[in-house]
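Researcher: I'm preparing a figure for a lab meeting and need a structural model of a single chain. I don't have an experimental structure, so a prediction will have to do for now. The sequence is pasted below. Please return the structure as C-alpha cells so I can convert it later.
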Amino acid sequence: MKTLVTCLFFFGISVRFFVGGAAAAEARPNIVVILADDLGIGDMSAYRPGADVQTPHLDRLAAEGMRFSRMRANATVCSPTRAALMSGRYADRVGVPGLIRTDSANTWGYFDPNVPTIANHLRAAGYHTATIGKWNLGLTAPGTPNDRGFDFFHGFLDDMMDSYTTHRRQGHNYMRRDREVVDPVGHATDIFTAWACDYLRERAAAKSPFFLYLAYNAPHFPMEPPAEWLARVQRRAPAMDEKRALNVALVEHFDDGVGQVLAALKATGLEDNTLVVLTADNGGSLPHAQNNDPWRDGKQSHYDGGLRVPFVLRWPGKVTPGATSDYAGLTFDIFATALEAAGMTLPRGTDAVSLLPVLRGAASAATEPRELYFVRREGGPAYGGKSYEAIIKGDWKLMQNSPYAPLELYNLKDDPQETTNLFAKNQKVARELQAALRLHVQRGGATPWQPPAVDK
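Model: Understood. Here is the structure written out cell by cell.
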C-alpha cells in the first residue's frame, strides 16, 4: 500500500518522497559520484580506442552503463566545477568564479554559505552523506564539508598536494577526518580508495541510502605515480616519452583505485541499487602530457579541450548496458539527476538539468534549448583578477581565453576543432550570444566571490 508523500523544508529544501520503512529506502538508490582531477577525455581508453593508456575499470563502468560523448565540465579549473556540482547552479551564482586557494591574496572564490548543497538536500531526504578526497571549496568554517551538509568527511581540504606521499600544501597539512587533523601514510590515491571501500562496507550494514562523493586528486600534478606503476608502463612502452609515461601511470593507478571501489560495491551487495557517475572537473593539462584528443587545447582554456570530459553513468536495471548519448550537458547535471533519482523536487534557482530522460532513452534532457555558460576568474599578469567567459547555444560558441583577448566565435557543428574564428564574419550570431552572455554575467555578479571583510 502506498504511503503518504512527505514534504520537508530545510534551508529552503523541498523534499518529496514516499516513506514506508525499508521498502521505501530500497526503492531509492544509493548514489556514488567519482570525480577525477584533470583527467583528459583522451586518457580514458573507452573514448580513444587504441590509446596508449589502459583504463579497464573505467571502460567497464562505461560498458555497464551509459557513456556520454558531449558532456563538458562547468569550468576549465577545479573549484568552479566543484561548486557547480555541489549546488546545481552556475559557479559564479554561488560565489566561485575561480580557484579557492590557501593564499588569501590569490583566491578567487567564496562558496556562498547560504546555498544548500547536494548533501544538504539528500540528507534532508534521509540519505547518509559522505565525501572522501579533495574538497577545494573552503579551508575553514563555514566552508568545510561538515558545514555543507556532509555527515562524514575523510579527505583533503585544499586545491592540490605538493606531493601525493606527504599530502602537504605549502607546508600545511589539510588532511582531515571530519574536523580532526589526520596524517595518513601512503599514496593519496591509495588512501582515498581505502577510505571509500571502508565507508561502503560500513554503509552495507545500514538501512538508509547513502550519497558518496569520492573526489580523487589524481591525475592532477605533481606527476607522482607509485614507482611500480611507472615501471609497468615503461616495460610495456619503453619508447614512451617520460612525461607522458608519468601521466599514463598516474591515470592507470587511479583506474585501479576506481576498480577497487566498484569491487567493494559488488562484494557488499550494494551494486544493484547504486547509481554511479564518473567524470572529471576539467580537461587535462597539456604541460603535463595529458590528452584531450580530439579537442583543441586543455585545462584553463575555453576551447573544448579544456571543457570536454569523460562522463559515464551506471545504474543497474535502469540504464541499458553499453548505451551511449550525444546529449550536451554539464557536470552539475549530476546534482539534478541525483535529486530526481532520490525522488526529490528540484529546488528553485537550479540551473542544472536532470539526465533521467536521457537515461530512459530520450534524445535530450531539456524541454527547451539550453545555453551552456562558462566563467573563470584568475589573478597574475595574464588575468589581473578579471574574469573571462564562454557561452554555447545550439551549434555556436562565443568565447575568450583571457580577459584581454578578443572574442572568438565558432560553429561547433561545422568546425568541432575550433579552427576558424567567425566573429568578424558573422556579427549577427555574435551579437545574439553577447546579449545572452551579458545576462549570465549580471546574474553571477549578484553573488560576492570574496569572504566578508573583517575589521582589523
